[in-house]
Amino acid sequence: MSTHETPWPAGTPCWTELSADDAAAARDFYSGLFGWDIDVSGPEFGDYGVARVDGHRVAGVGGKMSADQPSAWTTYLASDDVDATAAAVAEHGGQVAGPPMDIADMGRMIIATDPSGAVFGVWQAGSNTGSGLVNQPGGVVWNEHVSGDFEGSKTFYGNVFGLSVQPMPGAPEGLQSGMLARSGGQVVGSAADVSASSADGAGDGWVTYFAVADTDGTVAKATELGGSVVADPSDAPFGRMAVLAGPEGERFAVVQTPAEGHAHSDTPDADPTD
């Protein structure tokens, strides 16, 4: 089991969170789909739900902060200093939705938008270190940044988080995609031009991939629970995948990874969150 209970290295996707109009209905959908146990906080934290698998944190489900906020999954990247990261976001052409804020003793965060328009969060760990289980059914297995401005996105995430883009193993020459890696070469996800993304139909922005034991069964279950299919199951080098939408249209991907490892297991150190 891939568990992790210490702060994630800076630049690593460390959490994923859904903002929904009807958070209670969203909790029912995802607990039914992934088998999550969801702990719901009190009103002081907006009745925020923390989803768990085998007792380990895997994702958050909560209400929206404003009426015009879209229903969507948001990827959070780890930071050792959120205030410095917020300044770097603004310096390199991004926008910060508000000043850094503390969430009790759990951590410090911002919500930001990169120059391509993709929304993401930044988390500086306190008592809550983010995802406690990855690469297992019900947990996050991969994160991909999809943009119509591949070169601009490479530059932004390089300047702000120190991430570089390495060639995607086996990809055709000239394809606008690559593996996102932090200092030292540790792969933390992928980046792609919207025309080259594996998650066909997921749209621009950060795409969250959840691990599942049976992609086809998960697709059938999602439609039964009130979700919809954006892209039918298909086989890819890293596993069988599909793109789905939840009850409010929020899009995400699921991947049935090979038994011997996680997505992109044939790539050295290709762990989406480690």
TrEMBL record:
Residues 12-125, 139-257 form the VOC domain. Gene3D superfamilies: 2,3-Dihydroxybiphenyl 1,2-Dioxygenase, domain 1. Pfam families: Glyoxalase (PF00903). It comes from the Bacteria. CDD domains: SgaA_N_like. This is VOC family protein. It comes from Angustibacter luteus.
